[in-house]
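User: quick one - fold this with zinc ion bound?
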Amino acid sequence: MSDTEHEAALQQAADWLRLAERVCVLTGAGVSAESGVPTFRASDGLWEGHRIEEVATPEGWARNPKLVWQFYGARRANVALVKPNPGHFALVELERRFGDKFTLVTQNVDGLHSVAGSKNVLEIHGSLRHTRCTVCGAVANRALEPLGDAPECPQCRGLLRPHIVWFGEGLDDDIWMAAMEAADACDVLLVVGTSAVVHPAASLIPISKRRSKEVPAKVIEVNLTRTEASAHADVGVYGPSGETLPKVLERLNA
Ligand code: BV8
Ligand code: ZN
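Assistant: Sure. Structure tokens for the protein plus zinc ion:
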């Protein structure tokens, strides 16, 4: 993409956001990449030395819960050391502009949007900071403290699991319903740092286009490369989101 095309894409994204009444954002691992959190696809199926099926599926958990906790313990320790990047902060500023007409749907479990100051965040794949008891179901925010490889529920001493949506598991109904409503109602959908491969998250993109109302949303893709989402995108802003999102906000505020 030439500099002229890149500048035009930044300006187009800012112009559509200026005209928007309701904005929805869908983020994936790419928005946290510049903070030092590894993405998924870059690891071509191997993720921190583990096969995803071994550690991010109910079968993997049933087979070896200690291994799963070692994997999530390592990710909790990694995330404890990282900070939000300018891309996260640009989305905080965008929310300040749109107030309660802004929804941030994230596939990420690193919590960095909330750490940066985003308020209306839907963590559709769960959270590294939370545990869920496999016996009494209690969900607790355990921050990023070390939990070992077989943590027990303080209430009932049952085995805790990560409060994460694994492959093959359904999403929380209320959270997913809210995400679909936000995608359906928005005038602009900003898709940031996702390969748009994982479902049902990726279906938010066509949902924003389908929109039961008269005008489909404008979809702005912010990524390093074209992805599965590109076919639905009305404009692509290509470059690291820690650089491109602040540039869009600069033009929006100009
Ligand atoms: C469900 C928690 C049914 C885990 C996650 C075929 C076979 C088997 C299964 C399926 C299949 N087809 C569909 C499925 C279903 C499956 C699925 O979609 N699989 C995919 C892989 C094909 N989906 C599910 O299993 C879902 N559940 O369907 O259940 C059901 C229904 C009802 C009732 C019961 C059961 C559950 C999906 C949730 C899985 N859990 N996360 C954990 O984190 O430990 S998903 C996981 O992938 C992460 O959440 C991650 O966010 C997400 C998606 O990945 P991305 O975020 O997009 O990251 P990725 O690395 O792929 O891309 C990064 C992008 O960033 C790239 O485009 C890159 O270019 C860009 N980038 C990099 N750096 C930057 C950047 N962009 C900008 N700036 C940068 N600096
Ligand atoms: Zn319990």
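One thing worth noting: The chain has a mean pLDDT of 95.
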